[in-house]
Amino acid sequence: MPGTTPAPETPVRVGVVTVAHGRHDHLHHQHRALARSDRLPDDYVVVAMGDPEITSREVDGLAARVLPVGLPPDGRLPLATARNHGARAVLEAGADVVVFLDVDCLAGRELVAAYADAARREPGVLWSGPVTYLPPGRGGADLDRLDDLDDPHPARPAPARGELVTGGDPDLFWSLSFAVSADGWARVGGFCEDYTGYGGEDTDFGRSAVAAGLDLGWVGAARAYHQHHPVESPPVRHLDDILRNGALFHQRWGEWPMRGWLLAFEEQGLVRRTADGWERT
């Protein structure tokens, strides 16, 4: 009707989920970074995997609620189960969009708002954002000038702020920083909880998203900053997890993931190829 004012757009509710075991300082810095966001999350859930020292708290006006998840008898971190638990919690609380951040990742000021806008515009896309790996000694003290440290990892797309790029490669999906609409999450069905320990569950999730009919996209304004911690390359201490999860991935998708690590293990004489893939020597 002439003169009718359009109904206001319903606000998008955003829940942020982080899974953690240790890394308490990194988690605290992440909490502080989220509290500086241009658009605060409506819910912030930390899933503590076998870590009773992580407790619910409020930092700079942003509350975080903690959900405990126990470790299995073998002690392997239940990353897939924990992510599903966190997503279920924020969705049951009314979230329209679920944002997942690795415990080491600091959110740029625009990240929450950018993911919310992208998922509202195109709810059938699994969205990721560029991640910068910070050098040692940078992170929590640099929250007011993270943009000055922006240097996205070259192995992943890094569109400019304000740009959305779709048609992404599912094998480039990573779980450091991503977002999905409530409908998209329901279509994928969450992470496969048969994966335990290190590796494979995030690549599986990217494949599952494509199989469920979702596109993969990148949000230029959803910048995140990964705080430094010591790493082992290749990750020999996770060798058994990688072999077990790799075999599961092969069973589900017909090929092995993490081939770069497997080739490095082979060069060190730690694994050998078999008719079905790889095994420990």
From TrEMBL:
It comes from the Bacteria. One of its GO terms (molecular function) is glycosyltransferase activity. SUPFAM superfamilies: Nucleotide-diphospho-sugar transferases. Signal peptide: none annotated. The keyword DNA damage does not apply. Residues 178-229 form the Galactosyltransferase C-terminal domain. Keywords: Glycosyltransferase, Transferase. The keyword Plastid does not apply. This is Galactosyltransferase-related protein. It comes from Nocardioides abyssi.
